[in-house]
Design a protein that fits this description.
The protein has 313 residues and is α/β, with parallel strands linked by helices. The protein is built from twelve helices and 13 strands. It has one domain (10-308): Glycoside hydrolase/deacetylase (TIM Barrel, Alpha-Beta Barrel), CATH 3.20.20.370. It has helices spanning 24-41, 68-75, 77-81, 83-87, 97-110, 122-128, 134-152, 168-177, 212-215, 223-234, 256-268, 276-282; strands spanning 7-8, 11-12, 15-21, 46-50, 114-119, 158-159, 181-182, 192-195, 198-199, 242-247, 273-274, 290-296, 305-308. Helix 5 crosses helix 7 and helix 10 packs parallel to helix 11 (256-268). It is globular and about 45 Å long. It starts with 6 loop residues before the first strand and ends in a 5-residue tail after the last strand. It binds zinc ion.
């Protein structure tokens, strides 16, 4: 790795941590473990919560979708998520995560971490938003913002779409809501978004690195190999900064040791591990270009995700 002292807004080759929280179990069990780890290492991070019903069990229908079965085998979904979670919305009613675990969410903010909206109903958004109407999107988005305000007593300032799924209407809603930024997709660098014929007014800060679950089981990699690969990739374009997405259900539980190893490696290299708001604050927003969001494939993940293409305007 090239020795460099280049700094972006006072940060040293920053890595922003984006923690997606999908389930009640992940909120209650994975989140406190991650908070403990991040506090112990003195690093920042942003937690994106699923605020409404946990209908994870309905995601089982994805088993019938091409590509998902291989992922289930590779990543031991039942082991990570737990049998009970996989029944929510199928054989058991989906518990409301915001109502049942709002105290955990508030404790994350109280510990100094940034909090934002992941979704209201993860399965519903992930499976429905790509083809949804403006009215559907507004209703679901409003449910999430209302539930966030209910839990935290203040409006959300950022959004990270469930399953990296959005549509053009989402950009309108984020602009209306006056969000500071959103992290809805995958791509190499922050950009001002355009999707279809909608020009968004809310900065997009995409996830730049692959997730552990996209790497495990590919090319013979185990969880330690996945951590090594993320570290290797994070050294490319390091000065510009990276965004790494983890899940409370994975890195907060069975993959916690490998995640800690990765964090320690970043700190040993002197890198700033921060919340997205700190990374966003370090950017010279006037110099950021437009980029087009399209739905595209990402290695190791089934279906199509929001990915950013080249500047268009
Ligand atoms: Zn998620």
């Amino acid at each position: 790795m090239a020795a460099t002292s280049a700094r972006v807004g006072g940060l040293n080759r920053p890595v922003a941590l984006k923690v997606d929280v999908d389930t009640l179990r992940g909120t209650r069990e994975g989140v406190p473990r991650l908070v403990e780890l991040l506090c112990r290492l003195g690093v920042g991070g942003t937690f994106y919560f699923s605020l409404g019903p946990d209908h994870t069990g309905r995601a089982l229908k994805r088993v019938f979708r091409r590509g998902f079965l291989g992922k289930v085998r590779r990543t031991n979904v039942a082991g990570h998520y737990g049998f009970r979670t996989l029944m929510y919305g199928v054989l058991l009613p989906g518990p409301n995560i915001g109502r049942r675990a709002g105290d955990v969410m508030r404790s994350v903010r109280a510990a100094g971490f940034e909090v934002g909206i992941h979704c209201y109903d993860h399965v519903r958004w992930q499976d429905g938003v790509a083809q949804a109407s403006a009215a559907w999107t507004r209703r679901e988005y409003q449910r999430a913002t209302d539930a966030f305000a209910q839990v935290f007593g203040e409006p959300a300032r950022s959004h990270a779409a469930a399953g990296w799924q959005i549509n053009p209407h989402t950009l309108v809603l984020q602009t209306e809501a006056g969000l500071r930024y959103a992290s809805d997709g995958r791509g190499p660098r922050p950009f001002w978004p355009v999707m279809s014929d909608v020009i968004g007014g809310c900065l997009q800060i995409p996830t730049t690195l692959p997730t552990f679950d996209e790497l495990i089981g590919v090319e013979g990699r185990d969880a330690d190999g996945a951590a090594d690969e993320v570290l290797r990739l994070s050294r490319i374009d390091a000065d510009a900064g990276h965004v790494f997405t983890l899940h409370a259900e994975l890195e907060g539980q069975q993959l916690l040791p490998q995640f800690e190893k990765l964090l320690r490696a970043w700190l040993a290299e002197g890198r700033s591990v921060v919340a997205l708001r700190d990374y966003a604050g370090s950017l010279d927003q006037a110099s950021i270009g437009r980029g087009r969001i399209v739905m595209g494939e990402v290695p190791g993940r089934s279906g199509l995700l929001a990915v950013s293409g080249q500047a268009t305007l």
